[in-house]
């Protein structure tokens, strides 16, 4: 929420400890007098929050390309924001964990003591980071302004990057997109 406020995306109301869904979503089911959403095998109590509809529309316009028309439409209403504690548990229990062994190239058998574990984010994960820019800090009158700094960063950022290990397995491939000038 603080990052969104800094970047000027939109104002989202997120009460502490409450799970939220956008109005008009197709995710909730009625259970007695409460609305619930099922994620994996877990049922979460949820409340509708109007500002999530605006957030879903923002995500639709800024995250998905036109080739992903199904997801562009779905995210507009079918978005869930989990409270921190429930999100933490959900991630800890839903992250892909693979135990592997390192093979000794000479013997073709497991290298001594080389059992290791890897964790992967779901392939559909959306990651973000803020890139903040300010004018170059110099007394030189030809200093570079913040727009030129952002243009430089954008020019250096490839469309696809690989982060982490296992590039040969196709892991860690990320599509990048720099969304600029959200807040003046």
Beta strand %: 15-25%
What is the first-to-last residue Cα distance?
18 Å
Query: What number of structural domains do the residues give?
Result: 3
Give me the number of helical elements: 5
Short account of what is shown:
27% of the residues lie in helices and 24% in strands. The protein is of the alpha+beta class and 184 residues long. A hairpin with a 6-residue loop joins β7 (96-103) and β8 (110-120).
Structure commentary:
The model has no long low-confidence stretch (mean pLDDT 84). The protein has 3 domains: 1-93, no CATH class; 95-122, no CATH class; 126-184, no CATH class. It has helices spanning 2-7, 50-62, 69-77, 84-94, 146-156, and strands at 20-21, 28-31, 34-39, 42-45, 47-48, 80-81, 96-103, 110-120, 160-162, 173-175. It starts with a helix and ends in a 9-residue tail after the last strand. With 184 residues, the protein is α+β, with helices and mostly antiparallel strands. The chain has 5 helices and 10 strands. A 3-stranded mixed beta sheet has the order 5-1-6, covered by helices on one side. The longest helix is centred in the first third of the chain and has 13 residues, at 50-62.
């Amino acid at each position: 929420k603080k990052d969104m406020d800094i970047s000027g995306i939109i104002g989202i109301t997120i009460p502490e400890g409450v799970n939220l869904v956008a109005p008009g979503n197709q995710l909730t089911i009625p259970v007695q007098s409460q609305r619930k959403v099922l994620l994996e095998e877990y049922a979460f109590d949820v409340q509708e929050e109007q500002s999530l509809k605006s957030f879903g529309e923002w995500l639709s316009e800024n995250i998905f390309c036109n080739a992903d028309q199904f997801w562009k439409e779905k995210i507009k209403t079918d978005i869930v924001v989990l409270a921190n504690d429930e999100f933490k548990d959900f991630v800890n229990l839903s992250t892909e964990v693979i135990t592997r062994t390192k093979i000794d190239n000479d013997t073709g058998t497991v290298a001594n003591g080389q059992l290791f574990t890897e964790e992967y984010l779901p392939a559909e994960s959306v990651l973000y980071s803020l890139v903040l820019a300010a004018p170059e800090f110099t007394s030189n009158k030809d200093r570079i302004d913040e727009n030129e700094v952002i243009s430089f960063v954008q020019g250096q950022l490839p469309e696809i990057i690989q982060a982490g290990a296992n590039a040969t397995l196709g892991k860690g491939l990320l599509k990048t997109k720099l969304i600029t000038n959200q807040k003046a």
